[in-house]
Amino acid sequence: MVSGGARAVARCDALGVPPYSDMAGGLYRGYLTPAYAAAQAALGGWMEEAGMAVYLDPAANLVGRYEGTDPSASALLIGSHLDSVRNAGRYDGPLGIMLGVESVDALHRAGKRMPFPIEVIAFGDEEGSRFPAAMLTSRAVAGTLEAAALDLTDGDGVALADAGVDVGTYLSAARTPGSTLAYLEAHIEQGPVLEAQGLALGTVTGIAAQLRYQVTLMGTAGHAGTTSMPLRRDALAGAAEAMLAVEALAREDSSDLVATVGRIDALPGAANVIPGEVRFTLDIRSGDQSRRDRTAENILDAITSIADRRGLDFAATLVHDLPASPCDPQLMDLMDAAIAGTGQPAFRLVSGAGHDAMVMAALCPTAMLFIRCKDGISHNPAEHVDPADAQAALQVMLGFIGKLGETFVAA
Ligand code: GLV
Ligand code: MN
Ligand code: MN
Question: Cα(93) to centroid of ligand 2, in Å?
Fold first, then answer.
């Protein structure tokens, strides 16, 4: 018989191709796209088979609920995200959801109810790969989203309001403080630490602080054959210099600080036209928030100087500012104990990648379990996880849920 961990991996694989992907020959599943709806339909079926009642919340997150012995008790939420980056790996996000489903399935098959309900939640927008926002759906659930943040348009000019959600009721996805016992997220590590340690699993201590900007440089579009070099206001050449400054300033810092320009669009985008406008994303992270903010200021100052020298106009819009998010110390101890309970050494590590857990920390205590991924590769189709490691993670999640139950009864 296939283990629950192997089935979780196989389900992620099944969702890695059309119709669960919006891209032929690879995986891209954007929030509220046809692939997103198809993946929700498949997931809803798996949730029902595992004994859950399924519903869609006002932010179009799919939720499966497994009642506990006391339906009025606050729920344990287990989740991760169903959306992906473009040309993604198959496990970043979905694996945590599938392992949540398998956790409930194991309880259901054993005829076991916890003293609290368990809800498995598949968040819709964590990556920010469709709309210029990220963690939109967990922010809605955590109650940290403001109505103005819903005024979003994707790269094809489709407004969020026309994309299949009701922006008038969107914020009612917020859960009331106190209604959620804890949030548990299992996720591939997306880095090389566990592999280097020879460990399948680790307890996450916290998530690095993130800043994300949308940067625009405006020059003058002109004829590539007739505009002499001194007369040009080339926004793309300016952006190239700006990107090198981003890299240099981040490299100057020998801590965990990282800065990335991940997407760039040059307009009008023709071989014979000097680019008049360039838009690019800027993502800056560190476990130390003040270090992150200091570097962000230095980077924005450097781009301002480059733009001034080149006669370009420059604007940077803050897309998000997520503070560093420590996981709950008591839940970390429970996770360590659950790992040790399966005969594996407990090991703690920090997350440089962002996760819905960092947003959910505003609502309730959070816990994260990292699962080794091959060569630390993620946000890449080569992403790979060993089904045996996923099975080990499932055992730990069940141990964690059991220990949370004991703590809950004792409290
Ligand atoms: C999500 O994958 C992020 O870290 O940006
Ligand atoms: Mn990701
Ligand atoms: Mn992820």
Answer: 7
pLDDT in tens, 48-103: 999 999 999 999 999 999 999 998 999 999 999 999 999 999 999 999 999 999 99
Identical fold, 4-208+324-410 and 210-322: no
| Contact yes or no for 31/131 (Cβ under 8 A) | yes
Residue whose Cα lies nearest atom 5 of ligand 1: it is 354
Could you state, in order of their start, the residue ranges of all structural domains in the chain?
4-208+324-410, 210-322
Q: Domain 4-208+324-410 adopts which CATH fold?
A: Aminopeptidase (3.40.630)
Fold of 210-322: Alpha-Beta Plaits (3.30.70)
Distances (CA, A) of 266 to 37, 65, 257, 260, 279: 31, 46, 27, 17, 7
Closest atom of ligand 1 to 354 CA is 4
> Which residues surround the ion ligand 3 when the cut-off is CB under 5 Å?
92-93
Reported pTM? 0.89
Q: Write the residue with the smallest CA distance to atom 1 of ligand 1.
A: 354
Q: Which residue has a Cα nearest atom 3 of ligand 1? A: 354
